[in-house]
Amino acid sequence: MELLVSGSVPVVQKSRWLTVHALAVFAFLYLPIAVLIIYSFNGQGVGGFPPRNLTLNWYRILFQDGPIWDSVLNSLTVAVSAMAIALAFGIPAALALDRAEFPGKALFRRLVLLPLILPGIITGLSLLMLFREVNVKLSLVTIILGHGTALISVATTEVFAGLQKLNRAQEEASLDLGANYWQTFWRITVPNLKLSIIGAALLIFTLSMDEIAVSFFLIGRDNTLPLEIWGRLRRGITPEINAISTIIFVFSLAAIVLWYRLRVGGQGTSQVGAELTENTIAGCDSRV
Amino acid sequence: MATTFDPAFTNSTQTNAQPLLSLRAVAKHFGKNIVLRDISLEIAEGEFLTVLGESGSGKTTLLRILAGFEQATAGEVWMAGERLDTQPPYRRRVNTVFQHYALFPHMTVEENVAYGLRIAKRPSSEIESRVSDALAKVKMSAFARAKPSKISGGQQQRVALARALVNRPRLLLLDEPLSALDANLRRQMQGELKALQREVGITFIFVTHDQEEAMVMSDRIALLRSGELEQVASPREIYSRPATAYTAQFIGHTNLLKADVRNGVATSGALSWPTTAPAGAGLFSLRPECIRVADSSAPPSETSLPTTVPATVRLRAKLRDQVFHGANELLRVECADGQVLTLRTSTRPAIDGNGELELEFSPADAVLVRPSEERA
What we know:
By secondary structure, chain A is mainly α.
């Protein structure tokens, strides 16, 4: 017994350091967010430690702030429209990648992923130059087009992953039972891709909601929420910003949890989760 | 190689009507890779035909051509007087039971079975009654509202069968449908499938790599080897009259005897027996159960075999080893010239002091087969 215990001591020590290390990483990642949330309830404004006089006052001010809510509405409009555009182009692209054979397919596969890797500054700048060239006035529409095109890659990768997992024998069975290709697509292929499509939609929505770089270049007179916040920060941090950030955080978290639940619940593999986290990280990287 | 049609079968079953299905010189190439070559085959209405072959022999490709998922590179397929191979899969009166069933996971058992009828826009009262009949036939009525993921492999198999049969196809294709089941369930399903086929009277083409399964279920077996038909015959015929050495070895066990035929007598080492084979080198297949332990008390010839040839050939051989199989035993014996034979017997052999035993076989059981050259 004692032998066993003494033998396992170094292992225990090692894992203790590992725990400390992990905690440090988590603190580094989440402490700022925690501080932000706590200070959104701080009665003394942005300063002062420890926070005193907890209050919902900043939220009250926030809810009476017209421009913020206009920008929230703008952001929602942009996100929903970008989602529609990205899915409308991304799903056929994924189908083409999965089933069609065409010259330059390998190149196409890489090009479709390019917006994920490309820095937002490049995407934004190039779109800005394009819109200038064709004399399109910058507005929410240009932002929608910018987000929509940049996020097609997200829709394509998500749906392509779903198609790869789809059992082709099911489609053959459908044809075998008398359904033509079109009927088979709607009755068998689409229902099987439902989770991938919903996942892609949620991901596109959240990515669009907090996008700054591309929006910054394409913004017209109407602000999106992140740009509104950014604009206000130039005049100094107010606890109101903390409050809206807290609300954004809660909604993003809910969306991500929902999306993850859908994927893992639907397909039952942790591998799917890992793969998607990778995609998400790649997606966030390009925009942060 | 020419396709071997069994004349006995042709006379007995296929003379009365035109065949339901007719494959004419069907070939399939994938690039340079030739998967099927010159497949010609006729299948009668209501027949249970098994396409038997090792993996890679092209049997699944053949099935996929019939279902419409692959296009033949050459040749034609006709069904009931109409060209079949030019039709898309959804216009063929052919249904398939897939190897892994391919049930639709987002539909219930009932919806799966109703799928074909819904697509065909049958009236809902008809769909309802046909679906419940089909489910009853495969004993799955109790699971009508279950999702496929909630039922066992054997049950999924039945649902796949019902989903195909409910459409009343002219031809049902089954792609190794039993391969995913465990041995006991498999045996049970073999029996049920055969009984079901008799009941519905639909022509079945069943693909398998399991020769035992093929023997148990089929009216005829089409043995496929490296994309060519090796032999097409009834199980009994293909077993007792194999055309080639490959057939003889693939279906059951056999002893292959290399013999020299001269003046109606075949000689292989220490063995010789009368034969009707033409003079020259000949390869003979002798099934293990055709070699018997001789009853030393009885005179050598007292059976009712043709009188022109002696009823039995006797030989002495040394027992090498012995494997107990329950109902019978497999013995490996070595003849005086070193030739090793395998035999199957249910009686305990009498072994003399030298470890030798007296054996016999009927010359008629030594079947002349074509040698099978090695192929990739």
